[in-house]
Every structure is written in structure tokens, then in C-alpha cells.
Write a structure and sequence with these properties.
The complex is a heterodimer of chains A (161) and B (260). With 161 residues, chain A is of the alpha+beta class. Chain A folds into two domains: 75 residues, Roll (Ubiquitin-like (UB roll)), CATH 3.10.20.30; 64 residues, [2Fe-2S]-binding domain (DNA polymerase, domain 1, Orthogonal Bundle). Chain A is built from five helices and five strands; from the N terminus they run E-E-H-E-E-E-H-H-H-H. Chain A has a five-stranded mixed beta sheet, with helices on both faces. In chain A, a hairpin with a 2-residue loop joins strand 1 and strand 2. In chain A, helix 2 crosses helix 5. Chain A is elongated. Chain B is an alpha+beta fold. Chain B folds into three domains: 44 residues, Uridine Diphospho-n-acetylenolpyruvylglucosamine Reductase, domain 2 (2-Layer Sandwich), CATH 3.30.43.10; 106 residues, Uridine Diphospho-n-acetylenolpyruvylglucosamine Reductase, domain 3 (2-Layer Sandwich), CATH 3.30.465.10; 95 residues, Enolase-like, domain 1. Helix content of chain B is 31%, strand content 23%. Chain B has a five-stranded antiparallel beta sheet with strand order 4-5-8-6-7. Chain B is globular, with a radius of gyration of 18 Å. Chain B starts with a strand and ends with a helix. Classes of the chains: A alpha+beta (161), B alpha+beta (260). Chains A and B meet through strand 4 and helix 3 of A and helix 2 and helix 5 of B.
Chain lengths: 161, 260
């Protein structure tokens, strides 16, 4: 067993894992941070997307021990300090960017990853960045619209679907 | 997934010592190895992570040569912007999260017949630098999932001569995001090199007939009437041999037209 320590959503945590323990298993099973979802477990769907040292990673395709010493952000840490939804989460609610909601944690984390490097993305840039995030409700149109809105761009001309 | 011992050495020398034991396996970004282990298609007894080795990180551009550390992620290669073909290729592998973990050394060591990086390495006549020696790309790729690497040998860096113009065209298999067929065209003062991935049962290869034609006339029209031998092409539910052979010709033309 291996001892690991990391910072998750600003809080120091430690645990004991096997080599094969995936980062998403450590988050969900050991720390009970179940906001990060496992959709496919084959690195296709992106529901498990989190940030490791500020960049988006699929937590089903990284060993927990590889995150030893890292700074991790998950969906649980995305809300504003007063507990309200952050601007991306709020935009998903405002623009119906979720249907069943299963893919949403990964979508929000992928969107946050995009917006920190590309503050005002084009629709094509958003769609390209969501290449590895699958919504099985096929609700992409409003997800893209929500991310456009979260970036402060006018989406009034984009039809609701 | 079967369990394993895990070590994360901080330098190449320690990594080699760790790899010397029976059933030890190097771990790059794990974007292929981890899914493979989940399916129990691989079950190493020890994983040696290369992600802690700082000397294997980063992209250096000096003169006409770009040198990429073996543990450099696809995202960081794309960000470095060394030359058009390489930047486009690295920025189109998998998806953004995969590009943040996957590494050039891992891709080249695995030599998946549909991976993108082998095409860049072969088309640029890259030098694969290991802990022990330097291997010319023409000698390095030895067939599907087969390379010149020894059991205990690590790709520490890849050196590519920067082409005058280059481009990578990938016809993406949308479920896997691997190349159904990918063609890398690189033009140098002394000629053109064309490398094809995704198409052949023997892994990445150079389309030498096209290289000859393009070296005298670098235009898409020049190869329009050419054909590619389909006899050793991959045939699967995504496309027949003939379909892939045709894609090689079409994508080569597009790469020539788009080269910059």
C-alpha cells in the first residue's frame, strides 16, 4: 500500500492506496467525493474530468498515486465561496445545459479548463474542446450555448433547442 | 486490473534500475497502458512512472532542430508550436484531457498502427534518442506495436529536423479518435517525405512513390493519378483495404495543399 497526500479543492487530504487505485476511485470511494462520475471507465466519455495542477484530466485514466503531491479541483469545489453556483454552473442551469445530468460534472470541468485559457471561445473552439466529453442525452447544443453564455458572450441569437 | 508495485524515479538512471526487474513496465501518461491493464491485456508486476523525471520534459527549438523530451505531453508539444505539421498533429491527438496526460515517448514506444506520432517521426526523419543510443526513425519502426527498443530502454528525447513546410491530415475514427488513416507530409531542401499511419498491417510506412513525385513537383495534382497498393492494408469494420488505400492518396493531396 502507498501513502499519498494531495490538496483537493484547497483542502489537504491523505490516504492509503494500492498502485492500481485510480484517481477517480480514490475520490469517490475513499473520500466520498461522488460528484465526479464514471460514465464509461474506458477514457471515452469524460464524465470523470477533473483538474490536476490546473489542467483537465480524465480521473479514470490516472492512478491516484500519480497525483501524490498534486493540487486537484473537482466539481465539489466549483461553487462560489458563498455556496451559490459559479458562472459556468449557473449558465448550465439558465440555458438548460443538462438533461439527465450525468455528464455535467465533466462538462463543467472541461468548460472551466477551456475558459481559463480561452476566455471568449468561438462555438467551434467550444465544440472542439468538448471532443472527449460525451452527453448521452445528446444535449450538446445547449451545453455549447451555456459555455458561450458563461464566457460573457451574447447568446440571445442562438435558438433554444 | 491486477495490482502492481509502483515506483516513480526522479532520473533516468534510477528508472533503468527499476525497469531491469522481471515483468516491469514503463508508464508514460498511461492513456493507452491504463485502459489495456483494465482489460487485463497487460499485467505488469511493476510500473515505473516516467512522469517525475524532469530531464525528460519540455521542448527545445534551436536552429533547424526541435528536441522534445520523451515525457513531454501532447498538449505541451502543441503549445510549443515548433512547426505546423507537428503542432497540428499533437493538438489533434485524442481529446484535450488525453493530450494533457499522453506523452510522445509513450506513443512512439507503443507504436500503435493507428497512432499519430509515428507518422511525424517517420516523415521528419526523426532521431529517437534513448538512454543508450540514437535510432534513426527509418530503423526504429519495425511493424505493428514493434520497435527497435530493447526491454530496458527508455526514449529520453526525440529530435526532428524542422521542415520548410509540413502538414498532417488525419481521417479520424470518431469513436476511438485514432487515425483511420493519417498522412504526414514534410518538405525539406533535399526532398519530400510522406509517412502514413493507420493504413497498413505493418504499421507506419513511407509512401516512397509519392515522395519521388512530390520532390520534383510539390503539388496535390502531381499525385492525383497515383494509386497505392492495398494488399497489405488494414481491413476492418471501419473501412476496407481499398478504402484505406484511397484515403492515403486523398489525404496526401490534402496535406500537400495545406502544407505551411
Amino acid at each position: 500500500m502507498l501513502n499519498i497526500t494531495m490538496k483537493i479543492n484547497g483542502k489537504a487530504v491523505s490516504g492509503t492506496v494500492e498502485g492500481r487505485t485510480l484517481l477517480v476511485e480514490f475520490l469517490r470511494n475513499d473520500l466520498h467525493l461522488t460528484g465526479t462520475h464514471v460514465g464509461c471507465d474506458t477514457s471515452q466519455c469524460g464524465a470523470c474530468t477533473i483538474h490536476v495542477n490546473g489542467i483537465a484530466v480524465k480521473s479514470c485514466s490516472m492512478f491516484a498515486v500519480e497525483a501524490d503531491g498534486a493540487s486537484i479541483d473537482t466539481i465539489e469545489g466549483q461553487e462560489n465561496t458563498d455556496g451559490s453556483l459559479n458562472k459556468i454552473q449557473q449558465a448550465f442551469q439558465d440555458h438548460h445545459g443538462l438533461q439527465c445530468g450525468f455528464c455535467t460534472p465533466g462538462m463543467v470541468m472541461a468548460a472551466a479548463d477551456l475558459l481559463q485559457n480561452t476566455p471568449t471561445p468561438t462555438e467551434a473552439e467550444i465544440r472542439n474542446h468538448l471532443d472527449g466529453n460525451i452527453c448521452r442525452c445528446t444535449g450538446y447544443h445547449n451545453i455549447v450555448k451555456a459555455i458561450m453564455a458563461a464566457s460573457g458572450q451574447d447568446v440571445s441569437a442562438i435558438a433554444a433547442e | 486490473m491486477y495490482n502492481f508495485d509502483f515506483v516513480k524515479p526522479l532520473n533516468v538512471a534510477d528508472a533503468l534500475v527499476a525497469l531491469a526487474s522481471e515483468e516491469a513496465q514503463a508508464l508514460g501518461g498511461g492513456q493507452t497502458l491504463i485502459p489495456t491493464m483494465k482489460q487485463r491485456l497487460a499485467s505488469p508486476e511493476k510500473l515505473v512512472s516516467l512522469s517525475g523525471i524532469s530531464e525528460m520534459q519540455g521542448v527545445d527549438i534551436s536552429g533547424n532542430i526541435v528536441t522534445i523530451g520523451g515525457a513531454t505531453t501532447h498538449a505541451n508539444v502543441a503549445l510549443a508550436g515548433a512547426f505546423e505539421g507537428l503542432t497540428g498533429l499533437a493538438g489533434g491527438i485524442g481529446d484535450p484531457a488525453v493530450r494533457n496526460r499522453g506523452t510522445i515517448g509513450g506513443s512512439l514506444a507503443n507504436n500503435d498502427p493507428a497512432a499519430c506520432y509515428p507518422a511525424a517521426a517517420l516523415a521528419t526523419g526523426a532521431t529517437i534518442v534513448t538512454n543508450d543510443r540514437e535510432i534513426d526513425a527509418d530503423d526504429y519502426f519495425q511493424g505493428m506495436f514493434t520497435t527497435a527498443l530493447e526491454d530496458v530502454e527508455i526514449i529520453t528525447a526525440v529530435r526532428m529536423p524542422i521542415p520548410q513546410v509540413s502538414n498532417y491530415q488525419k481521417f479520424e475514427q470518431p469513436a476511438s479518435r485514432f487515425a483511420l488513416v493519417g498522412v504526414f507530409v514534410a518538405k525539406y531542401a533535399d526532398g519530400v517525405r510522406v509517412a502514413v499511419t493507420g493504413a497498413s498491417e505493418n504499421g507506419v510506412f513511407r509512401w516512397s512513390e509519392a515522395e519521388g513525385v512530390l520532390s520534383t513537383n510539390f503539388s496535390a495534382d502531381a499525385i492525383l493519378g497515383m494509386s497505392v497498393d492495398s494488399s497489405e492494408m488494414i481491413s476492418d469494420l471501419h473501412g476496407t483495404k481499398e478504402y484505406r488505400a484511397n484515403l492515403v492518396r486523398v489525404l496526401t493531396g490534402r496535406a500537400v495543399s495545406s502544407a505551411s
